[in-house]
Amino acid sequence: MTSFAKLLAELQGQGANDPLVFVTDEGEIGAGYHVTELRHSQATGIDCGGVIETWQDARLQLLDGNGAAHMRVGKFCAIVEQSLTAVPELADVPLMVEFGHNNAALRLLSIANVAHESGRVVVQLGETGAVCKPKQRGLAALQAGQTAACCVPKVSQSSQCCG
Q1: Sequence-separated (6 or more) residues with CB below 8 Å from residue 88
Q2: Would residue 109 count as lying in a domain?
Q3: CA distance 27 to 117
Q4: Is the residue at 133 inside a domain?
Q5: Number of independent structural domains in the chain
Q6: What is the distance between the terminal CA atoms of the chain, rounded to a whole angstrom?
Q7: Is there a domain that residue 157 lies in?
Q8: In a 10 Å sphere around its CB, with 0-12 CB exposed, 13-18 middle and 19+ buried, how is residue 144 labelled?
Q9: What are the E-state strand segments in the chain?
Q10: Residues spanned by the domain of 88
Q11: What are the backbone angles phi and psi of residue 44, rounded to the nearest 5°?
Q12: What does DSSP assign to residue 84?
C-alpha cells in the first residue's frame, strides 16, 4: 500500500510539466479533474473475531473533470506538498483514492501503479474489496508455521468467529 510521501517521491522523479492522468478499469478520469480533499483519519473498529484495532489512513478525493487538459505533475505535487506541510499526519499512512466516474457512485480505490507513458504520467487505480481480518491473521500464522485461531478452513473448524 502506498502513502502520500511515497506517491510524492514517485511523482517528483517525473517531468513537472507532464500531464498527470488517473486511470481506473473503466477508463481515464476526465481532463480538468479537481483535487477536492486530502484527508487524514484515525479509526477504531472491531472485526468479526472480536478484535479491536485502531489505525490511521489518508484519502485523496478526486472530482471527475470535463476540461481541456489534465493537471500537470508539478501542480499536483505542489498541492500535496502544501497539504503535507499543513497536515503532516497525511504523509506516511496508507493512502486510498475516493472517486466516481461522472461524479457518481463514489468508490474507494488503491494506487496500483505509477508509470511514465507517452509523455504523460499515468496513475493506475485499482479496486478494493472487503476482507476478513481474522482470516488474514490466520493465514499469516499458518505461513509462519503457527496454529491459526480463526477463519481458516480445515484448521479451526470449531472456531466461532466469522459465523
Answers
A1: none
A2: yes
A3: 15
A4: no
A5: 1
A6: 29
A7: no
A8: exposed
A9: 20-24, 27-28, 34-46, 52-63, 95-99, 107-117, 120-127
A10: 4-128
A11: -130, 135
A12: H
